[in-house]
C-alpha cells in the first residue's frame, strides 16, 4: 500500500510517559522506541498499568507527563499529545488501528459486518458502494470470515468471528501502527490459537508495527520481537522476547516465567 | 406594560428580533452550520413551526407579502393558522401565489415554481441535527461537525443499499452544503432536494424547540449525499396530476373510495391552480 | 372531477367555536370565576406559575380556566404570554433564610432552632372523600393564635447548621461555584443551553421542568438508578421579599413579596482518609406551594452533579443531556402532539419507495420463475 517506509527512525518514541489516577499509580516514567515492522509486547498482571500505558500511547488517555512522538508519513516525528484533536482523530482512522479485547468496544453491533469494515473507508472519503463492498469482501476473506455473512450483524457472530471482523475493520485503511489490547482474551484455547496464527500472518505480510498488551506469555512468545514486563506501573525488564523469556533477569519476570512453566 | 396592550409588529419584541437576525447573519455566513439561538416561547406549540415563525417574524417588514404552506398547500390547517397569526400580529399582506410572495414559510415542501433572488424561503425544522439518529449526544455530534467526521452518515446509506438495494431515505434526505457542513433539509421529500442547489432565493431554517437556525445563501452548492454507483435520485410517478395534468410535480395520493380507488394530484396547490386555470378559493 | 380538499380556515373557526362551548359546559351551571380558581385551586395555580415561570396568580387562574383545567395547556398559555413581556432586569437573589415561614419541616432533626412547623399539608390527612364538600363544605375552621408567629422569628436553614460544623459542603459545591467564574447566573430563556451545562442553568431548567417527569426521575434515584442516599434536610414554604435595583436609583427596593417552596436534601457524603468527609446537597426551589416538585428537583439536581462529585454516570437521572433535553413539558407536548399535523408528503414518499421495492421483488420472482 505505502511503498517506502522510513527505516532510519523509530515509528513511535515514548519518553517518560506517566499517568496517575489520584493517588493510584497508572504508569510511571515509561520510555521506549518502536521501529517500523516491530512487534512490542507489554506484559504484566492486571493492575500492572499495561492498559493505562496502551491508552496513553494511543492518545485515548492524556498522560500527566511525558511525550510520545509518532513518525508521520510526511512531517516526521510529532508529539501526539501536542497535536490537535482533529489531527489525532485523523491518525486514529488512517495510520493507526486499535483492536480491543472486547469486540463490542471495537465494532458497531447494530450495523452489518460489511458496513463495519467499510466505515473507515467511508470516513476517509470512499464514495463508491461497489468498491467499498469489494474491499469489505476482500478483507473478510483475509481474516477468514465467511463472506456470505457480509450483511449480517456482528452480534450474530461467534466471539472469535467478531474479533476477526474487528481486525478487518481496523486494517482496511492500511494502518502502519496497530495497538492491541488482549486481542485473544476471553476466547477458547483452540479459537485463540487460530486467531494468533492469523494475526502473526497479517503482521508479517503487511509489515505492521504493533504494540500488544497481554498477560499471556505464550502470546508474547508467538508474536513479539521485543517485550516489556510491567509491575506496579513500572517497567521492570525489557529486551528481545526470547532473551527475556529464556533468561529472565528480574525476580518478578522469573516468577512470571516459572509460573507459566508449572502450569 | 398593561394587560391587553397590543403586541409588537409580528409578535416578537425588537430585541428578540435583533438577536434572531444576528443568528441568521451568522448562519448565512457559515452555510449549513447550525447556529444556536435563544428561541422564545411562542403562542403555538413546539412542532407546529415555532422556529419558522420566529425566523419569519424577524425578517418580515411592513411591505412584505407572505405566503404560508404546509405539505405544499396554502389551505392546510396549520398553514392557515400561521398565516392568520401574521395577519393579526403584523398586518402584512398575504398571498397564496408563489410568484407574488416575498417571504414564504413552509413545512415539508419547496414550491414547484422556481424562486427568485428577491424571495426568502423559511423552513420549519423539527430536528435540525442530521446526525442525531446515528449519535444521540449533542456534545459528540458537535465534535463530528467541527472535525468533518461524516463517515457515519455514509454508513447509514451503505446499510440502506445493502439491505434494500436502495438508499431508503425518502424525506429529510441529508445534504452537504457548500462542500462543508452536512445539513438536514427538514422533512421535505427528497424530490425537492435538487431545488435547493444554487437556488436564487435565500433559504432560512428555524428549529424552535431545538433552538437552532441555519441557512443556505443564494446560489450555494447543495449536494444530496450518495454513492458514485448509487447516485441520488428523486421520486417518480407513473401518473400525471389528475387535475392539471402536470408530470413534473410532487403528487399527493388521494383515496377516493374504500374499494382501492385512488388518484394523484399536485401537492403544490398554487402550482396546480395556475396550470388548471382555476382561481384560488 | 376531483376537487382538492378545501376549507381549512372554516374548519379551524368551527373547532374554536366548539372548544369555547366545551369550555363553558352546561350554561345552566354558573360560570367559574378566575378569582375562585385563584383562591380555591391554589395548588394548580402554583404549579402553573412554577412551570410557566411567571409569578402572577390572576393570570395563572385565567390560563387554567381557558385551558379547561389542562395544566400543561395552561402553562403553555403562561409561557407564551411571558415571552412577550419586556425584560427590565434581574432581581436581587431572594433570601430564603429570611422567609416568613408558613411551613417548615426537617426530617433530619427532631427539633431545631425555630422548630418544626407543619403548616397546611396533606401529609397527615386520611385520604377519605369528604362528601361535605359536595355541597357547601364545612365552615372555615378557627385557627388558634398559637400558630401565628412573628415574621422575624429566627429560622436558620438546617443545611447552614451542618455547614457551620463543617459537615456540609458549601452551597455551590466543594469545587467552588461552577459558573465559569464570570459570577453571572445563566438564563436559558435568553441563551440556549449548551452541554455540559453549569449548575445554575441546570437548576433553572429543573425549576421550569415538568413535575411528573422530575418526580419519576427523582423516584428512580431512590430505587437504585443513581442512588444518593437522600435525607430531606429541610422543606420550607412561605413568603419572601423580592428586591430590585433600578439603574437610576442604584440601590435595592422591594418590589414584591412572593410565595416560595424550597427543599434542601442532605445526600451521600464525600471524602477520603485525607479529606474530611462532608455531606453533599441537592437543591429545589419553586413558586408557590410545590413540595413534590421541589423535593424531586433536589434529588435530580444532586444526581446531575455526578461528574462534579466524581461519580460514574450510569442512571438516566445522572445523564445531563437526557434530563435537561426532556424536562420541559411544553417542548415535549408540542413535539409529541405535532404528530397530529399532516405528514402527507413524507408518507407519500415512503409509500412510493415501498411500492417500488415490492414491484422489484415481484419482478425478480417472475424472472426467476421463467
Secondary-structure map with pairings?
The complex is a heterotrimer of chains A (263), B (281) and C (370).
Chain A: E1 12-21, E2 24-34, E3 39-43, H1 50-57, E4 65-72, E5 76-79, H2 85-93, E6 96-99, H3 103-106, H4 113-123, H5 129-142, H6 159-171, E7 177-181, H7 189-206, E8 209-214, H8 217-223, E9 226-231, E10 234-240, H9 241-246, H10 251-262
Helix pairs in contact in A: 4-5, 4-6, 5-6
Chain B: H1 14-29, E1 35-36, H2 50-59, E2 65-70, H3 77-89, E3 93-94, E4 103-107, E5 120-124, H4 138-146, H5 151-164, E6 175-177, E7 181-183, H6 193-196, E8 202-207, E9 212-216, E10 222-224, E11 251-255, E12 262-266, H7 269-276
Parallel strand pairs in B: 2-3, 2-4, 4-5, 5-8
Antiparallel strand pairs in B: 1-9, 6-7, 6-10, 8-9, 11-12
Helix pairs in contact in B: 1-2
Chain C: H1 8-24, H2 34-40, H3 42-52, H4 57-66, H5 71-83, E1 100-105, H6 158-164, H7 199-208, H8 211-222, E2 231-244, E3 253-270, E4 278-287, H9 291-304, H10 320-326, H11 329-337, H12 344-369
Helix pairs in contact in C: 2-4, 3-4, 3-5, 4-5, 7-9, 8-9
State the shape of chain C: globular
- Structural class by helix and strand composition of chain C: alpha+beta
Largest interface: B-C, 69 and 52 residues
As an assembly, this protein is heterotrimer
Distance between the termini of chain C: 42 Å
Low-confidence stretches of chain C: none
Number of discrete helical segments of chain A? 10
Which secondary-structure class do the elements of chain A indicate? alpha/beta
Q: How many structural domains are formed by the residues of chain C?
A: 2
Q: What Rg of chain C is obtained from the alpha carbons, in whole angstroms? A: 26 Å
**Strand tally of chain C:** 4
Strand order of the largest sheet of chain C: 1-2-3-4
Q: Biggest sheet of chain C: strands, sense, closure?
A: 4 strands, antiparallel
What is the general shape of chain A?
Answer: globular
Gyration radius of chain A, to the nearest Å? 18 Å
* SSE run of chain C: HHHHHEHHHEEEHHHH
Mean pLDDT of chain A: 91
Which strand-content bin applies to the residues of chain A? Answer: 25-35%
What spatial order of strands do you see in the largest sheet of chain A?
A: 6-7-8-3-9-10
Amino acid at each position: 500500500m505505502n511503498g517506502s517506509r522510513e527505516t532510519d527512525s523509530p515509528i513511535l518514541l515514548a519518553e517518560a510517559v506517566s499517568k496517575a489516577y489520584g493517588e493510584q499509580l497508572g504508569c510511571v516514567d515509561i520510555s521506549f522506541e518502536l521501529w517500523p515492522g516491530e512487534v512490542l509486547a507489554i506484559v504484566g498482571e492486571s493492575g500492572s498499568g499495561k492498559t493505562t500505558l496502551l491508552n496513553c500511547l494511543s492518545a485515548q488517555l492524556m498522560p500527566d507527563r511525558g511525550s510520545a512522538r509518532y513518525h508521520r508519513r510526511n512531517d516526521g516525528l510529532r508529539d501526539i499529545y501536542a497535536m490537535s484533536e482533529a489531527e489525532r482523530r485523523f491518525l486514529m482512522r488512517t495510520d493507526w488501528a486499535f483492536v480491543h479485547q472486547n469486540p463490542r468496544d471495537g465494532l458497531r453491533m447494530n450495523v452489518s459486518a460489511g458496513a463495519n469494515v467499510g466505515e473507515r473507508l467511508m470516513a476517509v472519503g470512499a464514495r463508491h458502494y461497489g468498491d467499498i463492498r469489494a474491499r469489505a469482501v476482500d478483507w473478510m476473506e483475509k481474516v477468514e470470515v465467511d463472506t456470505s455473512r457480509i450483511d449480517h450483524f456482528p452480534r450474530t457472530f461467534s466471539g472469535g468471528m467478531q474479533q476477526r471482523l474487528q481486525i478487518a475493520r481496523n486494517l482496511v485503511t492500511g494502518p502502519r501502527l496497530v495497538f492491541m489490547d488482549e486481542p485473544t482474551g476471553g476466547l477458547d484455547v483452540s479459537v485463540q490459537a487460530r486467531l494468533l496464527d492469523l494475526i502473526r500472518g497479517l503482521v508479517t505480510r503487511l509489515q505492521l508495527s504493533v504494540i500488544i498488551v497481554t498477560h499471556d506469555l505464550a502470546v508474547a512468545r508467538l508474536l513479539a520481537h521485543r517485550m516489556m514486563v510491567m509491575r506496579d506501573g513500572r517497567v521492570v525488564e525489557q529486551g528481545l522476547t526470547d532473551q527475556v523469556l529464556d533468561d529472565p533477569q528480574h525476580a518478578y519476570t522469573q516468577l512470571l516465567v516459572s509460573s507459566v512453566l508449572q502450569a | 406594560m398593561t394587560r391587553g396592550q397590543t403586541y409588537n409588529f409580528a409578535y416578537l419584541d425588537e430585541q428578540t428580533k435583533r438577536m434572531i437576525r444576528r443568528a441568521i447573519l451568522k448562519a448565512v455566513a457559515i452555510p449549513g452550520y447550525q447556529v444556536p439561538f435563544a428561541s422564545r416561547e411562542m403562542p403555538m406549540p413546539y412542532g407546529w413551526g415555532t422556529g419558522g415563525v420566529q425566523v419569519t417574524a424577524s425578517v418580515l417588514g411592513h411591505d412584505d407579502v407572505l405566503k404560508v404552506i404546509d405539505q405544499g398547500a396554502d389551505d392546510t390547517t396549520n398553514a392557515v393558522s400561521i398565516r392568520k397569526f401574521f395577519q393579526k400580529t403584523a398586518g402584512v399582506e398575504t398571498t397564496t401565489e408563489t410568484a407574488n410572495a416575498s417571504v414564504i414559510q413552509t413545512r415539508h415542501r419547496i414550491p414547484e415554481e422556481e424562486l427568485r433572488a428577491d424571495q426568502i424561503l423559511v423552513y420549519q425544522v423539527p430536528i435540525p441535527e442530521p446526525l442525531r439518529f446515528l449519535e444521540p449526544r449533542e456534545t459528540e455530534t458537535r465534535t463530528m461537525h467541527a472535525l468533518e467526521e461524516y463517515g457515519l452518515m455514509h454508513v447509514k446509506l451503505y446499510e440502506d443499499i445493502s439491505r434494500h438495494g436502495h438508499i431508503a431515505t425518502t424525506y429529510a434526505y441529508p445534504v452537504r452544503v457548500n462542500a462543508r457542513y452536512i445539513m438536514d433539509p427538514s422533512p421535505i421529500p427528497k424530490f425537492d432536494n435538487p431545488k435547493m442547489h444554487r437556488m436564487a432565493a435565500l433559504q432560512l431554517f428555524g428549529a424552535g424547540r431545538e433552538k437552532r437556525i441555519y441557512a443556505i445563501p443564494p446560489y450555494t452548492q447543495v449536494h444530496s449525499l450518495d454513492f458514485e454507483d448509487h447516485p441520488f435520485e428523486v421520486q417518480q410517478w407513473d401518473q400525471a396530476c389528475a387535475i392539471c395534468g402536470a408530470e413534473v410535480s410532487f403528487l399527493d395520493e388521494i383515496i377516493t373510495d374504500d374499494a382501492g380507488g385512488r388518484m394523484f394530484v399536485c401537492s403544490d396547490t398554487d402550482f396546480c391552480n395556475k396550470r388548471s386555470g382555476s382561481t384560488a378559493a | 372531477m376531483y376537487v382538492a380538499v378545501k376549507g381549512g380556515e372554516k374548519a379551524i373557526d368551527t373547532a374554536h367555536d366548539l372548544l369555547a362551548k366545551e369550555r363553558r359546559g352546561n350554561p345552566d351551571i354558573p360560570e367559574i370565576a378566575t378569582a375562585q380558581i385563584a383562591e380555591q385551586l391554589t395548588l394548580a395555580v402554583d404549579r402553573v406559575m412554577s412551570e410557566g415561570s411567571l409569578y402572577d396568580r390572576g393570570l395563572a387562574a385565567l390560563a387554567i380556566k381557558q385551558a379547561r383545567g389542562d395544566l400543561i395547556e395552561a402553562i403553555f398559555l403562561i409561557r407564551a404570554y411571558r415571552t412577550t413581556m419586556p425584560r427590565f432586569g434581574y432581581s436581587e437573589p431572594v433570601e430564603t433564610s429570611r422567609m416568613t415561614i408558613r411551613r417548615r419541616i426537617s426530617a433530619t432533626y427532631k427539633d431545631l432552632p425555630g422548630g418544626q412547623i407543619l403548616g397546611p399539608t396533606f401529609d397527615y390527612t386520611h385520604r377519605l372523600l369528604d362528601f361535605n364538600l359536595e355541597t357547601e363544605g364545612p365552615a372555615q375552621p378557627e385557627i388558634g393564635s398559637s400558630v401565628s408567629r412573628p415574621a422575624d422569628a429566627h429560622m436558620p436553614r438546617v443545611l447552614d447548621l451542618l455547614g457551620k460544623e463543617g459537615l456540609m459542603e458549601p452551597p455551590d459545591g466543594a469545587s467552588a461555584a461552577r459558573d465559569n467564574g464570570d459570577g453571572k447566573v445563566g438564563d436559558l430563556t435568553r441563551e440556549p443551553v449548551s452541554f455540559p451545562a453549569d449548575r445554575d442553568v441546570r437548576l433553572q431548567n429543573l425549576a421550569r421542568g415538568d413535575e411528573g417527569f422530575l418526580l419519576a426521575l427523582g423516584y428512580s434515584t431512590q430505587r437504585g438508578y443513581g442512588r444518593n442516599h437522600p435525607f430531606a434536610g429541610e422543606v420550607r414554604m412561605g413568603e419572601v421579599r423580592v428586591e430590585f435595583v433600578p439603574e437610576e436609583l442604584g440601590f435595592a427596593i422591594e418590589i414584591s413579596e412572593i410565595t416560595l417552596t424550597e427543599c434542601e436534601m442532605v445526600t451521600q457524603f464525600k471524602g477520603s482518609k485525607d479529606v474530611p468527609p462532608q455531606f453533599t446537597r441537592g437543591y429545589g426551589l419553586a413558586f408557590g406551594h410545590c413540595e413534590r416538585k421541589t423535593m424531586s428537583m433536589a434529588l435530580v439536581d444532586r444526581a446531575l452533579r455526578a461528574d462534579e462529585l466524581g461519580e460514574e454516570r450510569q442512571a438516566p437521572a445522572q445523564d445531563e443531556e437526557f434530563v435537561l433535553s426532556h424536562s420541559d413539558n411544553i417542548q415535549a407536548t408540542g413535539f409529541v402532539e405535532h404528530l397530529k399535523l399532516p405528514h402527507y408528503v413524507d408518507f407519500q414518499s415512503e409509500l412510493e419507495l415501498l411500492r417500488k421495492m415490492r414491484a422489484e421483488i415481484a419482478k425478480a420472482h417472475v424472472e426467476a420463475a421463467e
